[in-house]
Predict the 3D structure of the following.
Amino acid sequence: MGLLDGGSPLSWAETKKNADLIRETGIKQFLSLYERFQGLTDDCLKWGDEIEFTVVHFDHDKKTAQVQLTDPALLERLQQAENADPGNSPTAWRPEYGSFMLEATPGKPFGGATGDFNEIEPNMKLRHKELNEMLAHNTRCMNITCFPRLGCPSFSNPSFTPKPDSSVSRSAFFPDEAINPHPRFSTLTRNIRTRRGSKIAIHVPIFKDVNTPSPFLEDMSQHDEETQAGQPDHIYMDAMGFGMGMSCLQVTFQACSLAEGRLLYDQLTAICPIVLALSASTPIYRGYLSDRDCRWAVIEQSVDDRTREERGLDPLENDKYRIPKSRYSPVSCYLASEKYNDQEIVQNQEVYDTLRTAGIDHLLATHIAHLFIRDPLTLFSEQIDQSTTTESNHFENIQSTNWQSMRFKPPPASSHAKIGWRVEFRPADLQLTPFENAALVMFVVILTRTVLSLNLNFYIPISKMEENMRRAQERNAVLDQKFYFRKNVYTADGQTAAMAADSATPSDDDYEEMSIDTIVNGKDGVFPGLLPLMDSYLRDIGMDVASRCTVSRSFELIRKRATGELKTVAKWMRDFVAAHPHYKQDSVINERVNYDLLMACDRISSGTEHCHELEGDP
Ligand code: ADP
Ligand code: MG
Ligand code: MG
């Protein structure tokens, strides 16, 4: 989840007092990074993924499953190899928001060699194995985006009673003990809630099955007033943990220059909704089947720290901006061409002016000034005083709590190893198996190579990309929804997409609504298809047989997901629940259904069972 500070966390009031200082120093730090690294070129392609694990405890007698709250010592043990020989361990482990979660990445990034595609799935399997081997009997790790009964009574082992009067989240469902004990995480939770001025309120439409009450409205009468704010026909959740307690799949790329990074950021921005729909794996929240297939909107709401004024509910008196979106949201502006930025971009004018005076171009200044409308959410007293040249923590403080669909990462101030400008692709839900996760990663990595090599142009108005993000989360979106996509993705010889966009007059004729099948697989006379474009790129570069085979298997998975021949994880879960004898067609995921679903997830996730509906032929 980004930067892990240490030390004594300040209260929200103290943090707020220092907010201007943090922003001012952060901008100086960014300028220093920019000055030092703007000219970096010839950085080679490097890429790496991040996946998160949920640790689950099974009681096979009672037939129940709970998230297992783990001890920080587990992470220390997992990190032993990395700490003993930095840079040479095959895996790297990091803490995550839930104390039942862990993040794992490859020990070092993969490179530009096509042979590296053969490493990714085995590396993911290894991460799986390393963690499973350290877990107690009846405890397993798995790559699920959301534990289905997260927030239900006794959802964790050990179990704790939520304390809505005194806990950092004030949640009626999610006890503090389920939050990672590192002070960063509880401080984030408390400060987001305090800044917002009320508890987090997450509403997800319920899936209406034949026996689901209509309207569906939970009895919250035993709870406090805020908790009674549930909406009819919606599942209600009231804590950051419901969002940040979920897992996802992210991929980071190093670009060969600042300009290439900006271009990739823009082209991948348009791809985010497509991959979100293909990756859908989150149909269940707090023990209920929802009408959504992806985590995105839940996590957006779970960290929405905007005040009532910022949300437009009260007139602006104490705050500076009306802000249309949560800090967790789709990106608001493109970085390499302005032509398709058709949405209002709320920005910090002071920051913008400072950056422009220092020589930063309009678009990059706009991007940073947009990130800097936010307050820092955590601050540790030991870290207030910072160098503006050798450190970048205050910049990172704001940057890493802008949880957008893409992230543009400057080289770190302190790194000795040469690290270039990077772009992080962040929309995807997590898949059950290493094969599926690796396939999505390869799809995105090879797409970046194809975009750069063929100078493909995916620009559509940013408002249409946002609409696509919304559609991508609908139940069965991958087959049932259409998505705005650019019709002509080719550019003239020697032109990049940004150059093409800059010299064009955007029009509604640039794009049309297409099915994911058309976008991914192509359709004669309509669209060439991302996979066929990628195939032609791969033919051009030539590839050894083993890598070609690995990539073909991955492409086959993506192709069949797009046609519906293979199910998304969300669809598979829905079908599993619907067919379960203990499911009463009332949208409720009871203990027994939860247990059997997670047992199946574990078998599939760990490879002891091959799931044809998800993975295709073995
Ligand atoms: P985050 O800040 O998003 O938590 P991480 O540090 O966890 O990012 O790393 C994300 C991924 O980036 C990892 O898979 C890592 O291997 C990869 N990575 C590390 N260095 C580079 C680099 N120079 N270029 C591209 N990817 C890199
Ligand atoms: Mg990480
Ligand atoms: Mg990340």
Notes: The mean pLDDT is 95. Residues 50, 250, 424 surround magnesium ion (ligand 3) (CB under 6 Å). The CA atoms of residues 355 and 365 lie 6 Å apart.
